Amino acid sequence: MNEAVKIAIARFVGCAHRPGPRNPKKSPDAGSPLPSAVVLENPTRRAAQRLTDKGFAHIHRFVVLPCSKGPRWLLPLGHTHRTLEGFQIYTPYAPRARILKAIVLRAIKAGWDGWGWPRVLVASRGPLPLEVLVRQVTGEREPTFAMSLGVGGIVRKLTVQVMRPNGEILGYIKLPLADAAAERVRRETGILTRLWDFPPLHPHIPRVLYAGEWSDGFILFQSPGPPSPGPAAFGPLHEDFLRTLRGTYEVEKPGREVVEGVNARWQKAAPLLDVELRALGERALERALREMDGTTIPCGLTHGDFVPWNTRVDDGRLFLLDWESATGDIPFIWDVFHFQVQVARMLNPSSDRILPLGQSPAHNASFLLYLLNSVSDYVEEAVAGHPNIEYRKRILRRQLAQ
Q1: Which residues, 6+ apart, have CB-to-CB distance to 256 below 8 Å?
Q2: What's the pTM value of the predicted model, to 2 decimals?
Q3: Does residue 56 contact residue 42 with C-beta atoms inside 8 Å?
Q4: Residues 268-285: pLDDT tens digits?
Q5: Positive or negative, the Cα torsion across 176, 179, 180, 186?
Q6: Angle at which helices 387-401 and 333-347 cross, to 10°
Q7: Whole-number Å distance between alpha carbons of 298 and 203
Q8: Cβ of 38: how many Cβ atoms within 10 Å?
Q9: Domains in the chain, CATH or no CATH each
Q10: Which of 50, 199, 250, 365 could share a disulfide with 291, CB 3.0–4.6 Å?
Q11: Cα–Cα–Cα angle for 109, 110, 112, nearest 5°?
């Protein structure tokens, strides 16, 4: 079993349960002391039936996608509609990814039940701790789950989509897989709690259903929001949301202060970057200081990861998920920059022409600072080799050549 899947299943099972054998051909013998939970990899029907006969009444079956070497999602098996609804945990925007998801959905509708792909069975004598939590928070006694393993780095988290047996999504649970990830989940909890005190944002943000210490980390259970994905093109919906978010808090910061803040982060990140990118960063900082000195920049709370795949739409309003990267006292315009850079990276990665800049030298300089700050984020998250860094280097090269 892939190591990432092992860790995710261990977090899903919870500390109150001792995982049992993972070999489907070696289910517990009649005379052996039985654990309270058993995890089987690629289980046979016979092994699963033996567990049921021994009193393991709570069964969760998953298929691992897209493969055992690069797992990203665990979808529930057993009922077609649950598998279909489980795949709502993934909203692709890139053309190739959308085609691949459509192929998988057609296979599921045709009756495919995971055969030929890695599968995992979790069996327990009683409800798992997560099942107990869901029952206490939502009243649902037979929840089903889909899981997203997230991306690598020190802030990797397991996101669990919680559903009723009919597929209705009840919410999302975030379980950190590392200490740094636990801090991010705590931060998201704090951000959502504070934002909920600002009523105009209620239609736009998740509600915290439960948050607190869990096992050896922290857990956040939040409401799901609407099902319809947000648009990939920046438009009035995004502008309206950002205007509402801006109403929570705003401050005018001197341009020099913004440059100094980015420079402090850049100096920590730069030693881990290649020579060309370090040189581009120094040139960008010099230009930004020259262009922004004597100006003021509207700053406040930003979402931090304002991208289409973190948005949903309902009744003409934008709904935002994943607030763990939210930051205060940051230029508001950086959310717009991030949206456009990430969309271009996802949908047109061969191009390094991103924005119709030129509104003012200070505006263009702020874009350079966003790029440096974004690279620093990836370095801090221990994903220094991330393709997004190389993409930002290409943009910096073009911008500085103008």
Answers
A1: 289, 292, 293, 294
A2: 0.89
A3: no
A4: 999 999 999 999 999 999
A5: positive
A6: 110
A7: 25
A8: 28
A9: 3-224 (no CATH), 236-401 (3.90.1200.10)
A10: 365
A11: 90
